[in-house]
Fold this protein.
Amino acid sequence: MRQRLLKLAPQLVIPVLALVTLAAWAAWLGWDQHRDVQPDGATTGPYEAWQVIGLVLTLLAPVYWAASRRYIAGAVLGTTVGLTVAAYYDWSDDASGLYMLGVGMVMVGSLATTALVSAVIASVKRGGPPTVAAE
């Protein structure tokens, strides 16, 4: 049973990471949907900086898990797909139509950032102390 799960692991990394990312988006950003109006009339939001930072820090754990096991493509694609789908779903009710520009920026930014972070994690893990096989 364990061998079968280990063989399935590479195929499951992308969908599992995408679902984890969707859940993290919902937990950190999904509940805050109103814009704040400043005293001068300017609007901000709907997200606060601490929410986005919390999402990024939360996503570091699954990306680290996947990248340290050499599932680089799974870490990058799973996280990028999850963030892109979540942004599209969350922002698609925007009447201006500019939400697609934001979704594209989320996609490109998460792809580049996750690729860089995954490469750094994989190279650091590879450069660790060698393991000695028991004879």
Q: What stands out?
A: The radius of gyration is 18 Å.
